[in-house]
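Protein Record: Sequence and Backbone Structure Tokens
======================================================

Structure line: whole-number tokens from a learned vocabulary of local backbone shapes, matched to residues.

Purpose: to set a sequence beside its fold so the mapping can be learned.

___
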Amino acid sequence: VVLVSEKDFSETRDLVSGICDGEPFPTRAGKRIPFHAMHVFHGQKEWKDVPEDERKEAMAIVEAIISVSKLTCTYACVNKLKMAQRYTKPVNPHVMSFIQAGEVVERWVGAYAEGQHWLPCVGNTDYNRDVYDCFNACRNFGPPFGYWSKKWTACADVMAFTSPSQSKLFLLANLVAFAVSRHKQDKDSWGTYERIQGRLWKAKTFPR
């Protein structure tokens, strides 16, 4: 999760777009190669023939936006093995991660942006309807499971399902998610997580 305030939205979006649509991103067939943290790291798809030092540079430049713009990031993840061991009918990990992240953002807004609201923009998956139903439940009744029962009062009345094709800002969340995943696997060989760690705020993992 990357938190971008409304007053900083245009400037941050334009910064990300300017970098991802320009140097040092290589081109293929006259078009800039799209940024996707996993593809950049592993040299997959359009990044297949790009040398590792160029891929590292591309990752570092996008990563630097988070620090330079002083963006707050967080994450919520699910330990699938623990869930399967502890629950006979575990909740869909996409839904649980969304609820965990929402709880963190609610607390952050209450602590640092009182009186403001947050609009959740979530990547499209096959579980959009489940996520949307849980969003409404959290607003009206509080999370249906987990360790927190407080209603979400700082969120907007609606949410959005989006992708990098609609907003380049989504690429920052993609980078954070990938960095966290590598860190959780003890595979942060490029040091991406280490460098963004200072911008992370109270991440959550379920189950505890």
Observations:
- The two ends are 20 Å apart (CA to CA).
